[in-house]
C-alpha cells in the first residue's frame, strides 16, 4: 500500500545537461531519490494483480498532487516565477486592449496543452489562437499580427520546431514561454530574447523515476495548471467584476450553460384556497423561476 505521509516540497532546480539516460532531453534520468511515495505492493492478498493496479493508479494521483503542490510553492516563493506571472498578465492585458490575441504555439503533448489553454481563454473573453509550429513554417505565420503576443509551451525549452521558428518571428512581438526552466538564462529557446517572459512549470522528479516510463504525464498536468492559472488571472485583470458575465455569454451550451442561465430570483407569495366546506385555508408557497419553466413548491408536494 502507498505511504500516507506527504513528501517534502523541494526547492526548484534546473535540469543539468550532464544527466544521462535512454530518453531524450525532455525526460532525463535522475540519481536522486524520488520525492513521491514509492509504489509498494502487498503480496499477502489473494488478488495481486488487482492490488498492483490499484497501487499504481493511486501512485499516479499522488505524484500529480505532489507536483501541483511543488508548483504552488514555486509561485508563492520564487521571485522569478512571481515576476513572470505578473509580467505575463500585464502583457495579455495590453494585448487585449490593443485588439490583439495571445498566439499559443507548441507541438506534441505540449501542443495539446496549448489547445486547452486557448479554449479556456476564449471562454473567458480573452483573444487567443493556437499555432502549430510545423504549420507555421509553411504559411501559418501569417496568423501572427502586429498587436499579438506569442506563448511557447515546451517542457525542455529546446523543442527543434520552436527553435526553427524563432528567427522568423517579428522582434516586436512579445514572447512568453511556459517551460520547465526557472530562469531565462538556462532556457535555450529564450537565450536570444532576454526580454522574454518566463512561466516556470518544472516537476519535482522525472516521470521515469515516478512511473518507470518517460511518457509526459506529470509535466503536462503541471503545464495545464499553469495555463489555467494564467487564463483565470488574466481574465480577472481584464474584466474584473464582469468576468462571470463574460463567461456566461461565451458558454451558453451544455450543463455549464444551463447552470449559469438559472434565474435566481426567488419570491414568496401568499395564496388563499377555498375548500368545498367553505373553510378558508391559507398557506405559503415558494416559487422559483428556472429558465423558461416555473416550479411551484408547497410544503408537501411539488407540481409543475
TrEMBL record:
Sequence segments annotated as region (Disordered): 1-48
Example GO biological process: carbohydrate derivative metabolic process
Compositional bias per record (Polar residues), positions renumbered to this chain: 13-23
Residue ranges occupied by any SIS domain in the UniProt entry: 92-240
Skewed-composition ranges (Low complexity): 31-43
Pfam family, one: SIS
Record-linked PROSITE patterns: SIS
GO molecular function, one term: carbohydrate derivative binding
PANTHER family linked to this entry: SUGAR ISOMERASE, KPSF/GUTQ (AFU_ORTHOLOGUE AFUA_6G08860), SUGAR ISOMERASE, KPSF_GUTQ (AFU_ORTHOLOGUE AFUA_6G08860)
Name assigned to this protein: SIS domain-containing protein
Source organism of this protein record: Lophium mytilinum
Amino acid at each position: 500500500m502507498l505511504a500516507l505521509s506527504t513528501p517534502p516540497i523541494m526547492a526548484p532546480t534546473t535540469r543539468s545537461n550532464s544527466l544521462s539516460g535512454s530518453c531524450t532531453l525532455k525526460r532525463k534520468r535522475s540519481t536522486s531519490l524520488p520525492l513521491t511515495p514509492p509504489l509498494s505492493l502487498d503480496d499477502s492478498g489473494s488478488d495481486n494483480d488487482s492490488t498492483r493496479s490499484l497501487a499504481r493508479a493511486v501512485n499516479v494521483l499522488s505524484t500529480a498532487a505532489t507536483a501541483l503542490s511543488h508548483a504552488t510553492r514555486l509561485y508563492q516563493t520564487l521571485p522569478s516565477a512571481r515576476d513572470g506571472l505578473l509580467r505575463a498578465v500585464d502583457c495579455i492585458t495590453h494585448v487585449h486592449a490593443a485588439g490583439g490575441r495571445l498566439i499559443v504555439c507548441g507541438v506534441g503533448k505540449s501542443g495539446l496543452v496549448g489547445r486547452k489553454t486557448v479554449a479556456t481563454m476564449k471562454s473567458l473573453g480573452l483573444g487567443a489562437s493556437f499555432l502549430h509550429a510545423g504549420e507555421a513554417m509553411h504559411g501559418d505565420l501569417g496568423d501572427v499580427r502586429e498587436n499579438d503576443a506569442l506563448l511557447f509551451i515546451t517542457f525542455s525549452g529546446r523543442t527543434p520546431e520552436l527553435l526553427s521558428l524563432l528567427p522568423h518571428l517579428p522582434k516586436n512581438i512579445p514572447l512568453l514561454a511556459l517551460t520547465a526552466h526557472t530562469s531565462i538564462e538556462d532556457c535555450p529557446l529564450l537565450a536570444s530574447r532576454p526580454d522574454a517572459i518566463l512561466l516556470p512549470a518544472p516537476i519535482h522528479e522525472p516521470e521515469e523515476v515516478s512511473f518507470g516510463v518517460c511518457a509526459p504525464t506529470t509535466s503536462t498536468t503541471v503545464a495545464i495548471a499553469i495555463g489555467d492559472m494564467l487564463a483565470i488571472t488574466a481574465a480577472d485583470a481584464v474584466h474584473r467584476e464582469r468576468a462571470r458575465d463574460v463567461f456566461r455569454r461565451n458558454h451558453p451550451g451544455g450543463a455549464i450553460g444551463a447552470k449559469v442561465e438559472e434565474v435566481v430570483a426567488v419570491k414568496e407569495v401568499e395564496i388563499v384556497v377555498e375548500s368545498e366546506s367553505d373553510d378558508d385555508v391559507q398557506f405559503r408557497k415558494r416559487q422559483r423561476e428556472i429558465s423558461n419553466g416555473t416550479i411551484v413548491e408547497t410544503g408537501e408536494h411539488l407540481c409543475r
